[in-house]
UniProtKB/TrEMBL annotation:
Keyword Kinase: yes
Coiled-coil regions listed: none
Annotated catalysed reactions: 4-amino-5-hydroxymethyl-2-methylpyrimidine + ATP = 4-amino-2-methyl-5-(phosphooxymethyl)pyrimidine + ADP + H(+); 4-amino-2-methyl-5-(phosphooxymethyl)pyrimidine + ATP = 4-amino-2-methyl-5-(diphosphooxymethyl)pyrimidine + ADP
Protein name, as recorded: Hydroxymethylpyrimidine/phosphomethylpyrimidine kinase
GO molecular function: ATP binding; hydroxymethylpyrimidine kinase activity; phosphomethylpyrimidine kinase activity
GO biological process entries: thiamine biosynthetic process
Pfam families named in the record: Phos_pyr_kin
E.C. number(s) listed in UniProt: 2.7.1.49, 2.7.4.7
InterPro entries cross-referenced by the UniProt entry: HMP/HMP-P_kinase_dom, PM/HMP-P_kinase-1, Ribokinase-like
GO cellular component, one term: cytosol
Length: 273
């Protein structure tokens, strides 16, 4: 069985962060592992508080995984401060895992900040160059590329600008745009569009975590980046289509529907060892 590690924040309400990542991994038939970088007291409506785990303890969790287990892909989510970023970057440089997907989380769906605004420079310097795939949403791409994005053409320019910062591929996600949900992938060579009709729901808490974890799972199974993104897009679309009206704010994506629909065939899990 392929093994995928999430390095991210904990969402106690279960819709985003490490919890969404582990649910996505299970639905993809890969073995999920987690390094908790921050404990977030949050729900579908608001973020109450953030407690970062110490750099030392972040490092020790990463050591614990890598000294014992072969990791096929890593998904990195919320890193709230430069200290958290440096702790993660140091260990990634040490272990140089394959298939690193970075979701540069800055805000929750309800608009609450999850990253210190001043940490963008450290993100660009230490984390982005380690990413095989970077998955910013539009507000995150605006901050990283330091430009406004209001059109698909702007999304393409931002993807190319961010690619030049040293990651191997960038997907600017269109969840925050109007009209169809269009994601733009730039792999240094070509621009690809992944488009679905927009689903009319407020229950989109954790869509970005779901999407990036699905990409990491697919890369672990040796798919090309293009195929990994195409299948992750299908996965997240279904998870939004069947999203759950849990809580009073933006409800979470639904992983069980995907599980039941596809089942866990040998072909789907990659192998049965
Ligand atoms: N209403 C929607 N209908 C269809 N697809 C959507 C919708 N909202 C988001 N998506 C898709 O979900 C994926 C995640 O994009 P999004 O921009 O929502 O991420 P995000 O803002 O980082 O999510 P979060 O911060 O809540 O984890 C993308 O593939 C995007 O196109
Ligand atoms: C812990 C955590 N990570 C990521 C997100 C983004 O949705 C969130 N709301 N909470």
């Amino acid at each position: 069985m392929k093994k995928v590690l999430s390095i991210a924040g904990s969402d106690c309400s279960g819709g985003a962060g490490v919890q969404a990542d582990l649910k996505t991994f299970s639905a993809h038939g890969v073995f999920g592992m987690s390094v908790i970088v921050s404990v977030v007291a949050e729900n579908t409506s608001r973020v109450i508080d953030i407690q970062d785990v110490t750099s030392d303890m972040i490092g020790k969790q990463i050591d614990a995984v890598f000294e014992d287990i072969e990791v096929d892909a890593v998904k990195i989510g919320m890193l709230s401060t430069p200290e958290c970023m440096k702790a993660v970057a140091e260990k990634l440089l040490k272990y140089s895992p394959q298939n690193v997907v970075v979701d540069p989380v800055m805000y929750a769906k309800n608009g609450c900040p999850l990253m210190e605004p001043s940490a963008v420079d450290t993100l660009i310097e230490t984390i982005i160059p380690l990413a095989d795939v970077l998955t910013p949403n539009i507000p995150e791409a605006e901050k990283i590329a330091d430009m406004q994005i209001s059109t698909i053409a702007n999304m393409e320019v931002a993807a190319k600008k961010i690619y030049a910062m040293g990651c191997k591929a960038v997907i600017v996600k269109g969840g925050h745009h109007i009209g169809n949900a269009i994601d733009i992938l730039f792999d240094g060579d070509r621009v690809y569009h992944f488009e679905t009709t927009r689903i009319d729901t407020k229950n989109t808490h954790g869509t970005g975590c779901t999407f990036s974890s699905a990409i990491a799972s697919n890369l672990a199974k040796a798919m090309s980046i293009q195929d990994a993104v195409a299948q992750a897009k299908a996965y997240v679309t279904m998870a939004i289509e069947h999203s759950l009206a849990i809580g009073n704010g933006c409800g979470p994506t639904n992983h069980f529907y995907n599980l039941y629909k596809y089942g866990l065939s040998e072909e789907r899990t990659g192998n049965t060892k």
